[in-house]
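FORM 7B: Structural annotation worksheet

SECTION A. Query
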Amino acid sequence: MQIASWNVNGIRACAKKGFFDWLSHTSPDIVCLQETRAEPTQLAVEELQPPGYLSYWQSAEKKGYSGVALYSKHEPSAVRTLGLSKFDSEGRVLLLEFDSLVVGSVYFPNSQEGGKRLDYKLDFCNALMSELNSLVAAGKDVILAGDYNIAHQPKDLARPAENENSAGYLPEERAWMTTFLDAGYVDTFRQFDTSPGRYTWWSYRGGARHRNVGWRIDYHCVNERLSNRLESAHIQADVHGSDHCPILLNIKP
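SECTION B. Predicted structure
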């Protein structure tokens, strides 16, 4: 089974840049989208019902902001949000349940310049981890796919020394990521590739993508029990259409 994740930086904009060609060619079982910036009523038929997929959307109350979605070849037994209005109102989390497996598309808040939203972000992180812990304790396996807006280690960004005080690499954010992984979750990409220079986001400024001056802030994380079924994880850095690129996770059924 293949699960893809992509911060599309606007699904309608990404659609014009080849998203559905990528979807048809790659054909993942489940696609987790972040920063969709749209409500279902604003979407074309192809965007809402691509051939072979069901789609599920959680939009932000603010127009053109945030939002998550999933395309799935399989019908879930349940679809839900985090259930907390302060986060659901921003379209941050959508969870699909398939018997014993839960797949989540998640768009973590940006802590913003000067840590303006750091407290909000950490509240979100802790609420999400609490929900995942409850699912795992109930016997569920979880795949949490999305834009975490956190580069965990120095090798996860091109210029760590210059970004010690930058949103996404603040000490508090990195510490939470360490706590999360220590609590029984696995950064799947690092199970297969521990090298530096592997990024998922690049600024549009200064030719950053061409020079590979980027950050790895998009993840598939799974609970340890599910990690025994991992087959491979990939970053599709050569796929354009957004300032992020898609990431892929393959697991045994």
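SECTION C. Observations
The chain has a mean pLDDT of 97. Residues 118-137 form the longest helix (20 residues).

SECTION D. Sign-off
Analyst initials: ____
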